[in-house]
Design brief:
The protein has 2 domains: about 70 residues, no CATH class; about 120 residues. The N and C termini lie far apart (about 75 Å). It is mainly alpha-helical.
Length: about 200
């Protein structure tokens, strides 16, 4: 009696590649969340992020992955801000690691565009390189401010959301003046609410 061969993943198979990407994506978010809840005392803010993560996972199950991407990026940004002061290895290679994670999460965010060939390779690389450069610049700028890591991570996540929403609008050909005005107003309102909610002594 011949034993049946176990099915092997073929990396040249489109579905297999995305399966590996998805598992890697979930593992990174799980590790970032674990670091988030163990680095500081559990507070109402931790509870809020936990509930947001549960909601995002539910939305991801029903094929709306963008919520999980943004929550995941917040957890990653927060972990990096904390790690800069604690882990020398991360501090030394933070640019490369963070750049890789931004690229990876942006790839997951644009999965459907890539699968349906709505996003050309040259546009994808151009969008991503600019996003990575701007994110790293803002990340290291914020790292010098005496504001807690939560606020820094939220500010960086808001910027990431603004850029990727503009990018997705450009892909879907709905990128126009009206949309950008709306997006900018939302960004400014959320950004202002966050900045002015920070205690005065932490802003300077």
């Amino acid at each position: 009696m011949k034993l049946k061969k176990l099915p092997l993943l073929k990396l040249n198979n489109f579905k297999d590649r995305w399966l590996i990407i998805h598992w890697t994506y979930y593992i990174i978010i799980a590790l970032a969340y674990y670091y988030f809840i163990t680095s500081n005392e559990f507070t109402y803010f931790h509870l809020t992020i936990t509930l947001a993560l549960i909601f995002s996972i539910y939305r991801a199950i029903v094929k709306h992955n963008e919520y999980l991407v943004f929550v995941g990026m917040f957890l990653i940004f927060d972990a990096f801000f904390i790690s800069l002061a604690r882990i020398t290895l991360v501090n030394s290679f933070s640019s490369l690691i963070l750049a890789g994670l931004v690229f990876f999460f942006t790839t997951v965010l644009n999965e459907q565009y890539i699968k349906n060939k709505l996003l050309q390779a040259k546009d994808f690389w151009a969008f991503n390189w600019l996003l990575i450069l701007l994110t790293l610049e803002l990340f290291f700028t914020l790292s010098f401010f005496p504001v807690n890591t939560f606020n820094k991570a939220i500010l960086l996540t808001i910027f990431y959301w603004f850029y990727t929403e503009a990018m997705r609008a450009r892909i879907e050909t709905r990128f126009n003046r009206k949309f950008m005005i709306y997006l900018t107003i939302v960004f400014v309102i959320v950004f202002s609410l966050l900045v002015f909610s920070i205690p005065f002594e932490q802003r300077f």
